[in-house]
Amino acid sequence: MKPIPYGRQNIEQDDIEAVIETLTADFLTQGPKIKEFESHFAKYIGCKYAVAVSNATAGLHLAVMALGLKPNDRVITTPITFAASANCVRYAGGEVWFADIDSDTYLISLEKTKELIESKPKGFFKGIIPVDFAGLPVNLEAFRELADNHGLWIIEDACHAPGGYFTDSLGIQQMCGNANFADIGVFSFHPVKHIACGEGGMVTTNSEKLYKTLSNLRTHGISKDNMSENHGGWFYEMQELGYNYRLTDIQCALGITQLAKNKKGVARRNEIAERYKKAFEGKIKFQNLPYGSYNAHHLFVIEVDNRKGLYDFLRKQSIYAQIHYIPVNSLPYYKRIGYQGADLRNAEIYYARCISLPMYPTLTDEEQAFVIRKVLGFVNE
Fold this sequence. Notes:
Elements: E1 4-5, H1 13-23, H2 32-45, E2 49-53, H3 56-66, E3 74-77, H4 84-91, E4 95-98, H5 110-118, E5 127-129, H6 140-150, E6 153-157, E7 165-167, E8 173-175, E9 184-188, E10 201-205, H7 208-218, E11 222-223, E12 237-238, H8 249-260, H9 262-280, E13 285-286, E14 300-303, H10 307-316, E15 319-320, H11 332-336, H12 345-353, E16 354-357, H13 365-380
Parallel strand pairs: 1-15, 3-4, 3-5, 5-6, 6-9
Antiparallel strand pairs: 2-10, 7-8, 9-10, 11-12, 13-14, 14-16
Helix pairs in contact: 1-8, 2-8, 3-4, 3-7, 9-13
């Protein structure tokens, strides 16, 4: 059996041709493919505005800036995520506070978040960054109600979940990142994600004001909006301190063709997930799927007693499983700046047992059967 990674991109001939076409066009960056990708993505997600950025970390940074995060402002997120979900707050000088996860869904717990907010005076926190971990949507309708009761904004980290949805109280399927309940959504186009652009990200919102701010901050804080007849085409104003967080036309061309395949890719990911579940039901714990939710399945995570043993065993079989994630609060940087002492017992138990199995649309049935056989053989020995 050839090596089986936990995730990988799928680049096909139409992707290659789209990139070649852009390479021979007039614009490699700041051209028409960017708007085209943004338009296609906004339509797919079901939001009004989408802003293409250099990566999801840049998108998260722009999101907290657009929402006015100031030094020493406090924001809540989950410890079970990639560090970027928390780092964006630190980039703006804010403080990160962690709320524990639900032990069955592995998502940030609404109850623990509510307890943390209500343990402090009104106005102590400024926002919440829930993460659609592994592709499973957070119920943002419930978080929106909590946020509104305490005057907080919400950034949905939907990097794992393009194509996922939850069902709201009216029975409407709410696509991850559509910004109907969150103020802003953020997506990733890293190669192991659903839509591969090499690197890249997208920020989504339904607010015209936030859209304009995000667009401005993405390009050095520079605008040409105030050009008059007294100015030539060279005129611009730097209105605030922004960044060069643009995505190129080359990457957007690839993103357009990749996006067109995402519905099919997510369906295949769910087929793979169902095979795992059928094999592991009653034997190995895996992420729970709440009623009405559709998991986009960036990852398929299981819990086992001897996680390190299974990890090493699988590698010897050329199965390159991965661990997602080391709790952010336990990373040396966060420990060094004082993020210790929070009650995050569910996250700690989860981390001691979690391992992500191969999950990507081109994983074959034969490869998956091999993975299942090896996992069950190790667990049952």
